[in-house]
Amino acid sequence: MRTTALxxxxxxxxxxxxxxxxVPFKFKxxxxxxxxxxxxxxxxxxxxxxxxxxxxxxxSDTTVTLELTTELSATVKTKAISAxxxxxxxxxxxxxxxTTFNGVEAPAPEANPFSGLAVNGKIDSKGELLLDTVGAExxxxxxxxxxxxxxxxxLEFPDKPMKxxxxxxxxxxxxxxxIPDLGIDSDYPTSVTYKLIAVKDxxxxxxxxxxxxxxxxxxxxxxxxKIDGKGTGTGKMEFFVNKGYPKSIVNNVGYVxxxxxxxxxxxxxxxxxxxxxxxxxxxx
Length: 284
Known about the structure:
single chain; mainly beta; Lipovitellin-phosvitin complex, beta-sheet shell regions; 12-stranded antiparallel sheet; 2 helices; Lipid/polyisoprenoid-binding YceI-like domain-containing protein; signal
């Protein structure tokens, strides 16, 4: 009986030790591989605006709502390594946007900006993606930016292997906050923390927590603008351990902004939902 109990304890300890064995992670693109990308982004916004330029006894209040749904798909193909780097080409497949402003749906764009779009570049010796945008027209650059936004953001994993419960944090730029008229640009990033929850069959599972803070008090286009903003979000990520690339990322983030300028005040609330899926296959 005692021998059986000791054996059971040994088996349990072995299982626990195996389950807790640290796993090394590295985000990477592999040569001679094809990456399939599908992504859907939903954004809803509600803004209550006060016009302070009108007589104080007759302030004008306006409520604005915006619903925006973006869907895209793309393909990334890499070639063989040569001199420490390898060529890569991004192909735009499909891109669609549905916009509803104050309950009225806007006409959809007639042309697919991804149609025929192919962008060449390379993965350098450091694993960085470099694209050739020299001479591209503004419309092409816009489509390219949308295409690149569909790709998984580079993850800066810790140098040492991770065990269950370990976390790492990095800064991610929030493109939705790029509003030059209000003095907002990509200098106001979101802090994103990834927590390793489980590893099974070459798939790692992470919980995602994001936090955003913004304090602006500066002159924009000759007017003083003050903004106090914050946001929080949660999500999930599946990551291919052996391929060094995400399988899926789901994120839901909510934001609140209080904006004050010389002639207006605004209270803005909006949510963003992101659902991205990636397929990684060897060969071209």
